[in-house]
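Exercise 7.
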Amino acid sequence: MLLYSPFVLAATAALLGFSPVIAAPAKKFDGSLEPRSNCHYLPTDLQWPGLADWKQLNQSVNGKLILGKPLAQICHNSDNDLAKCAEIKNTWTEPLTYFTDPVNVMAPYWLNDSCSPFTSTNTTCDLGNIASYAINVSSADDVIAGLKFATENKVRITIKNTGHDYIGRSNGEGSLALWTHNLKDISFLNYTSTNYTGPAVKAGAGVQFYEAYEIAAENGLRVVGGFCPTVGIAGGYVQGGGHGPLGATYGLSADNALEFEVVTADGRHLIATPEENPDLYWALSGGGGGTYAVVISLTTKAHVDGIVAGGSFTINNTGDARYWSAIEAWQKHLLILDQIPGFTTVWGFTSDAFELEFATWPGGDASTMDEALASYKKEIEALNITFAAYETSDRPSFYDHYEHYTGSLPYGPYTTNDIIGGRLIPRSTVQNNATDLISIFKDIISTTGIPATSLRINGIAANVTHARVGNHVGSNAVLPAWRDSLYWLNVDVGIEAAASRETIHQIQAQVNAFQDQFKVLTPGGGSYMNEATFDNPTWKEDYYGANYDQLLEVKLSYDPNFVLYAHTSVGSDLMTMASDGRLCKD
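Solution. The predicted structure, written as tokens, is:
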């Protein structure tokens, strides 16, 4: 369903239906009227496509071209509507606000305070970093038309599905967005190939986990997906590896990918599998999103459903060394849980409390879950600490388990007003340097003087070694450091919904500093690119590792002209972002 009537950029407000001055990016004149020949055009350029060009594109996609506009435009100048502005303010940090919009993204850094509902009515409102237009994609033909138009007119292309994106891959100033959110087809099939025979699900790029999990359960199945229910199954999530509550049972999302339906930068509609276009399949399975091809659908393994054990607990801060001893003991206990096939945990702590948010163990039950946690419980008792809450459970299906521990479905409890960064923590670090790790934890949690609403360290522990997952080195392009990691750790800093650009940038810098502290203890390690920082100077090593050179070969093979670009994607360092926001090829 379209959010706005389809229309094209025009010179008159009557044709557009609202002021094009407000909707267009602010004018910038450092060479914009005579851009370099190797750069994309911006709306301020004389060479920007004219009205007739946009009309023709709109016709070629059957009226599905949408003019991008800031969500908070209704809060400013002549468009000001107090009631609607109040509604936007109230929903500003809800994912639903963004994943149903064709151009606006969730990350506060990339919205860049360009048009905020919390600033005064007469404050400048412009698109800033987000796309000027979007195509509401309903088929591969729409993508082909968009890519052709962008290539012929030197307009930047971006790909937006839900807009869950910390590192700026889904947005781009002056771009034409391919909005894949409404590709919602989902079907189940018996899949046969040389590598896998069994149940599978084919999901359009717009299918989200709250949809996939529920529909799979209705068919007696479960699929590998993420913790956040509103993330898309086939976009940057799987292309970046994709962790989730079933990780220790079936591996990362990329380990379960069977085939990708894609459109390449030159407009070819292809299938990528280990047998057909295997280099492209390999790159799409963990080698990063938004750069090799535009994904239309994903076919991934489905697994027979059944009983799932769960567990959670809370330990309040004791105000003394015992609190950190409890967290250190948990680090060591994770090495024990790591040996239990299928046992995944997500946990975290603040200055107030340490929580096991939920453990997932398919095939277990409440009693076996309690047994798995028993030795840790004894250590807590020895510290003279009482659990503020403790639960073990079992439920008949993964969806029932997920719904219980996530809550607030279909959209979940998650909000968009945070900044995040982190590091994969190898088993060897916990085995040999747990005390040093705890010292860093304490240092971060005790940080003061930053304008944050919350400061939390989270861990997601799942054994995704090749032996556990059942594949081998080279099966896909997942960062090799995942296979040696005990858990993925992130530092999550919450901010006010109305945080200023200066505050957002200050906290981003602080998160970078937090992230860097863990690098000292994890030499040769890496990070989960989907929850990392966009300005990490060692992004090639941290996000791609030894796979980078081979991934670049795939990029140059399928997109030698760099039609597709995303921050910290493979080959992105061969492009330059000019001071006026345009993208240029070096």
